Amino acid sequence: MTQEQCTHRNNVQSSDKPQVYKVGIYGWRKRCLYFFVLLLMILILINLALTIWILKVMNFTIDGMGTLRITEKGLKLEGDSEFLKPLYAKEIQSKPGKPLLLQSSRNVSVNIVNSNNQLLTQLVTGSGGFKARGKMFEVKSTSGKLLFSADEQEVVVGAERLRVTGAEGAVFSKSVETPHVRAEPFKELRLESPTRSLMMEAPKGIQILAEAGDIQAICRNELRLESKDGEISLDARRIRLMRLPEGKASASSSSSGTRQTVYEVCVCPNGRLFLSQAGTGSTCQISNSVCV
């Protein structure tokens, strides 16, 4: 075998051996990869620690979060709660035996709307006062008895007694209809109209009764007692007509002698009363100078 053939054979045998290639990251790339993996692990641990801390601070449990508990009947809040946005609930109630407090720095409004979002009833409590808007307003007792109601037509007071404790009493700009007006025991009842007239009307009659005191009717101009179909009766043991004018008889009809102290009450055709000195007969005709 020649030398050229041996060389060719060696080349063929060396070419049949498998070649080995190195696979991997070496040098600074390997160190950067380890650094990023370590940094990621540190971030995961910090995130896990923060999550556990938030769960601990917010008191997250299986039943709820903090003072909020999820029960079969709904949500249960223990303690004070603050809502920054509207709260929609079907029913809000307190614990048994505990009061329900609604507190706001401005006002508390309760609105009832229909399906078209139109306001039907509104209740507003604020610094300016208490306002209610609706077709009817009612106040009832624990037994269900009507105490007060108001609508566009009338206002009804269903209590057995209406008490007005103001110093000026009750002021009515128009008529008042009531079957009975009385004062408290040992208190006086005053019906007064400082600048206008006071009128009392009834289809069957008006009864003014004071069982333990006096009755006074005082006016500036005229006091009129009028009965169209019946009569006016003054039933008392003593009737006093104060400050009646005294009629003066003419000189021809005046009796001589001492001045008499007995008088008779006379009535003029216009209804005016006056006094006249009593005589053997009626002296109203001769002492009617008051009627002129």
TrEMBL record:
GO terms for cellular component: cytoskeleton; sarcoglycan complex; sarcolemma. It is found in: Cell membrane, Sarcolemma; Cytoplasm, Cytoskeleton. It comes from Betta splendens. The chain crosses the membrane at residues 32-55. One of its GO terms (biological process) is cardiac muscle tissue development. Keywords: Cell membrane, Cytoplasm, Cytoskeleton, Disulfide bond, Glycoprotein, Membrane, Signal-anchor, Transmembrane, Transmembrane helix. This is Delta-sarcoglycan isoform X2. It is a single-pass type II membrane protein. Belongs to the sarcoglycan beta/delta/gamma/zeta family.
